């Protein structure tokens, strides 16, 4: 083999080893491999040029080339192992987790007491065979009043002081318009058994027991042969499910233009158990809702022949129930979003 070849090979080897020592990551290592051992490398070119040599020279150069190639490959492998180990150590260090550190506090929200009460009441009525439906908060005078047997000049309008948006549009003052909307949607089919939770609005002065915006849950049952005793039995089952098996309800005569007869429904005072206290003003009873048998005129206006069908309806204030359930003395606490108040419901 000529000295020129020998020197050239030695120079290639030295340079390759020097640049290999400088390769410090996997990418540089790969680049080195292509550059030093690839087809277009100096070694590759020499292998190609070997074809033109005399057989003896070709053998000697071939052996020398192979040796160098093997030596460089070996060097590449050990460098690769070194770099891989270094990179792995770095990655492990970067991803190191100190399992002894205290966990980060994830602030937990709590379900609002009104939402809780709504869910609880929904569950009770669903178990009694009712479905839950919702309706619009912006209503028409027609549905909020007229189809509920409260014409424009009727004194009963004063019972619910109204936020009017225009002459015809208003913020619903109660969930009762959904009685009519539900019957219209059912188009004469029976049985109807729905409850309707939702926000309602009245121009009431805010005080400890009144809010200008509050939550009602309407109930409506329509079928053949529905009687007042069905209303009482349903409400009694509801009261027992919500406040315990010793609860009872009391019906007192009342007046709503859309029910006949109408009643107000009381529970045994949850604070004193009926003996009389400040909360029940010494009576032993607490009013929770208004109810009655659906007025025949409302049935007829909604497409249900009142000669054939009867029904009962009720409307309760969810805030009132939440206040009884959680011993809240002022309805405004339910709307002020004071975290000190709301946090108490985290584990309730
Ligand atoms: C009604 O709104 C009738 N629609 C209820 C009804 C439905 C009767 C179906 C018959 C058949 P009333 O105005 O009494 O009735 O309101 C019902 C409940 O809402 C009350 O018992 C009370 O718990 C609650 N409520 C009334 N006004 C307010 C207010 N300003 N703030 C908080 N809760 C209120």
Automatic annotation (TrEMBL):
<comment type="similarity">
    <text>Belongs to the class-II aminoacyl-tRNA synthetase family. Phe-tRNA synthetase alpha subunit type 1 subfamily.</text>
</comment>
<dbReference type="InterPro" id="IPR045864">
    <property type="entry name" value="aa-tRNA-synth_II/BPL/LPL"/>
</dbReference>
<feature type="binding site">
    <location>
        <position position="260"/>
    </location>
    <ligand>
        <name>Mg(2+)</name>
    </ligand>
</feature>
<keyword id="KW-0648">Protein biosynthesis</keyword>
<dbReference type="GO" id="GO:0016740">
    <property type="term" value="F:transferase activity"/>
</dbReference>
<dbReference type="InterPro" id="IPR022911">
    <property type="entry name" value="Phe_tRNA_ligase_alpha1_bac"/>
</dbReference>
<dbReference type="GO" id="GO:0006432">
    <property type="term" value="P:phenylalanyl-tRNA aminoacylation"/>
</dbReference>
<dbReference type="InterPro" id="IPR010978">
    <property type="entry name" value="tRNA-bd_arm"/>
</dbReference>
<protein>
    <recommendedName>
        <fullName>Phenylalanine--tRNA ligase alpha subunit</fullName>
        <ecNumber>6.1.1.20</ecNumber>
    </recommendedName>
</protein>
<keyword id="KW-0547">Nucleotide-binding</keyword>
<dbReference type="InterPro" id="IPR002319">
    <property type="entry name" value="Phenylalanyl-tRNA_Synthase"/>
</dbReference>
<dbReference type="GO" id="GO:0005524">
    <property type="term" value="F:ATP binding"/>
</dbReference>
<dbReference type="GO" id="GO:0140096">
    <property type="term" value="F:catalytic activity, acting on a protein"/>
</dbReference>
<comment type="subunit">
    <text>Tetramer of two alpha and two beta subunits.</text>
</comment>
<dbReference type="GO" id="GO:0000287">
    <property type="term" value="F:magnesium ion binding"/>
</dbReference>
<dbReference type="GO" id="GO:0005737">
    <property type="term" value="C:cytoplasm"/>
</dbReference>
<keyword id="KW-0030">Aminoacyl-tRNA synthetase</keyword>
<dbReference type="InterPro" id="IPR006195">
    <property type="entry name" value="aa-tRNA-synth_II"/>
</dbReference>
<dbReference type="Pfam" id="PF02912">
    <property type="entry name" value="Phe_tRNA-synt_N"/>
</dbReference>
<keyword id="KW-0479">Metal-binding</keyword>
<dbReference type="InterPro" id="IPR004529">
    <property type="entry name" value="Phe-tRNA-synth_IIc_asu"/>
</dbReference>
<dbReference type="GO" id="GO:0004826">
    <property type="term" value="F:phenylalanine-tRNA ligase activity"/>
</dbReference>
<dbReference type="InterPro" id="IPR004188">
    <property type="entry name" value="Phe-tRNA_ligase_II_N"/>
</dbReference>
<keyword id="KW-0067">ATP-binding</keyword>
<dbReference type="GO" id="GO:0000049">
    <property type="term" value="F:tRNA binding"/>
</dbReference>
<dbReference type="Pfam" id="PF01409">
    <property type="entry name" value="tRNA-synt_2d"/>
</dbReference>
<feature type="domain" description="Aminoacyl-transfer RNA synthetases class-II family profile">
    <location>
        <begin position="115"/>
        <end position="344"/>
    </location>
</feature>
<keyword id="KW-0460">Magnesium</keyword>
<keyword id="KW-0963">Cytoplasm</keyword>
<keyword id="KW-0436">Ligase</keyword>
């Amino acid at each position: 083999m000529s000295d020129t070849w020998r020197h050239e090979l030695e120079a290639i080897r030295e340079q390759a080893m020097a640049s290999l020592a400088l390769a410090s990551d996997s990418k540089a290592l790969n680049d080195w491999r292509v550059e030093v051992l690839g087809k277009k490398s100096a070694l590759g070119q020499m292998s190609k040029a070997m074809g033109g040599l005399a057989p003896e020279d070709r053998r000697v150069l071939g052996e020398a080339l192979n040796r160098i190639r093997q030596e460089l490959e070996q060097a590449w492998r050990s460098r690769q192992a070194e770099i891989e180990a270094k990179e792995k150590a770095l990655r492990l260090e970067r991803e190191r987790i100190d399992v002894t550190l205290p966990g980060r506090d994830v602030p937990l929200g709590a379900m609002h007491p009104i939402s809780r009460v709504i869910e609880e009441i929904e569950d009770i009525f669903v178990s009694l065979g009712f479905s839950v439906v919702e309706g619009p908060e912006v209503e028409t005078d027609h549905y909020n009043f007229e189809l509920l047997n409260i014409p424009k000049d009727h004194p009963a309008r004063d019972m619910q002081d109204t936020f009017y948006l225009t002459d015809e549009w208003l913020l619903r003052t109660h969930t009762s318009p959904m009685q009519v909307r539900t019957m219209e949607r059912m188009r004469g089919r029976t049985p109807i058994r729905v409850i309707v939770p939702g926000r309602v609005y009245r121009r009431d002065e805010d005080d400890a027991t009144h809010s200008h915006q509050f939550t009602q849950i309407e109930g409506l049952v329509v079928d053949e042969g529905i009687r007042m005793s069905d209303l009482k039995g349903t409400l009694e089952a509801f009261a027992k499910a919500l406040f315990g098996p010793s609860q009872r309800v009391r019906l007192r005569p009342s007046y709503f233009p859309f029910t006949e007869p109408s009643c107000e429904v009381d529970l045994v005072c949850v604070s004193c158990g009926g003996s009389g206290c400040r909360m029940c003003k010494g009576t032993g009873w607490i009013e929770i809702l208004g109810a009655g048998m659906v007025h025949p005129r409302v049935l007829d206006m909604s497409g249900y022949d009142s000669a054939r069908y009867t029904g009962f309806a009720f409307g309760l204030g969810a805030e009132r129930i939440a206040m009884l359930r959680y011993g809240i003395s002022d309805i405004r606490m339910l709307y002020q979003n004071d975290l000190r108040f709301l946090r108490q419901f985290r584990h309730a």
